């Protein structure tokens, strides 16, 4: 068997269905978001939270995440949208590529904070539950860069070099046609998938809570992103001679370390509930009343099995571990 000497860039970037044009870039992002939402809802439910509350987080973090991701990209690629021969209206055409994960994290974080107040689920509890789904979404989303022929690294002779057409606006001037480049999208996707395995193994052993698991994600992602970003050759805003995304990755690492240290000192017990003080799972109030509980679990007698299945799911997902240390936790912080 002859191994391929390069990775070809896809010939198709979109599907044309009548007047509708569906970009693979957008499909990758949508699939990633859906997978992350499903996984996070399951993890929230396993910790005693209402799975449906993830919808609130999804809406707020998605809208503000897209805005933040696009704004971050525009600010760090100012020359692509402003100046002679540029069309500022292209700022709105995010489907053509050009969104930044660090901007998405900032905007999405604001959205999560808003949804936390609406649903009653702690900000840090949701952030911890989100970690593996977020890494999966980022890995799937990186495939969109492959379809868009963008965000590749410097020249390489490695067997997995990426083929990029010389007519690509980001193709480095002076390099011959046929030059292969580092597939940074693939490096980052594999790093994120590896992160899922490593971080879940850590979670099973140490059971980090109160935002410390999300802090580990920041450190892990920051390390990988600093490496892949250093390989890229596309134009980017520099600060002190360093690409802004490299600086952002380093800041993510620092932020993760700080969050871990601070949260470990502030919360010494186990997390007894994912809800803010005074808030609880809405189903708890239904099941706490004997009459309502009996009605809830016996509606199947009327031929309606859905509530029973839902109630059983809630019961199955309820935390089973005793939490004497967490019972003394009185902090009202997020």
From TrEMBL:
Q: Give the Pfam families listed for this entry.
A: LGT (PF01790)
A Gene Ontology BP annotation from the UniProt entry: lipoprotein biosynthetic process
EC number, as in UniProt: 2.5.1.145
What's the superkingdom here?
Bacteria
Q: Which GO terms describe its cellular component?
A: plasma membrane
Indicate the transmembrane segments per the record. Answer: 20-41, 53-72, 92-114, 121-141, 185-203, 210-228, 240-262
Q: Where is the composition biased (Low complexity)?
A: 323-334
Question: Where do the record's region annotations for Disordered lie?
Answer: 311-334
Q: Where does a 1,2-diacyl-sn-glycero-3-phospho-(1'-sn-glycerol) bind?
A: 142
Q: Where in the cell is it found?
A: Cell membrane
**Which family, according to UniProt?**
Belongs to the Lgt family.
The record's section on NCBIfam families has: lgt
Annotated protein name in UniProt: Phosphatidylglycerol--prolipoprotein diacylglyceryl transferase
Species name: Leucobacter luti
């Amino acid at each position: 068997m002859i191994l391929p000497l390069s990775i070809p860039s896809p010939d198709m970037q979109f599907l044309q269905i009548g007047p509708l044009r569906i970009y693979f870039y957008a499909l990758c992002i949508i699939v990633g978001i859906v997978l992350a939402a499903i996984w996070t809802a399951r993890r929230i439910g396993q910790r005693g939270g209402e799975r449906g509350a993830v919808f609130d987080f999804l809406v707020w973090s998605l809208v503000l995440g897209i805005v933040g991701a696009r704004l971050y990209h525009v600010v760090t690629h100012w020359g692509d949208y402003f100046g002679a021969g540029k069309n500022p209206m292209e700022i709105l055409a995010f489907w053509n590529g050009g969104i930044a994960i660090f901007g998405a994290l900032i905007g999405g974080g604001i959205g999560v904070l808003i949804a936390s107040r609406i649903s009653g689920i702690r900000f840090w509890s949701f952030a911890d539950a989100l970690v593996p789904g977020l890494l999966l979404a980022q890995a799937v989303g990186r495939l969109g860069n492959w379809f868009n022929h963008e965000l590749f690294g410097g020249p390489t002779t490695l067997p997995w070099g990426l083929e990029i057409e010389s007519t690509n606006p980001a193709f480095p001037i002076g390099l011959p046609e046929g030059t292969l480049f580092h597939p940074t999208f693939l490096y980052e996707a594999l790093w994120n998938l590896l992160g899922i395995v490593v971080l879940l193994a850590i979670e099973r052993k140490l059971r980090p809570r109160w935002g410390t698991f999300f802090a580990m994600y920041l450190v892990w992602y920051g390390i990988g992103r600093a490496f892949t970003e250093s390989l890229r050759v596309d134009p980017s805003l520099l600060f002190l001679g360093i690409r802004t995304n490299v600086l952002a990755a380093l800041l993510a690492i620092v932020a993760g370390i700080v969050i871990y240290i601070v949260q470990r000192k502030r919360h010494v017990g186990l997390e007894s509930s994912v809800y803010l003080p005074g808030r609880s799972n809405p189903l708890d109030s239904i099941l706490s009343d004997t009459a309502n509980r009996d009605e809830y679990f016996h509606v199947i007698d009327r031929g309606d099995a859905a509530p029973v299945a839902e109630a059983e799911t809630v019961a199955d997902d309820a935390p089973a571990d005793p939490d004497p240390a967490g019972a003394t936790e009185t902090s009202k912080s997020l």
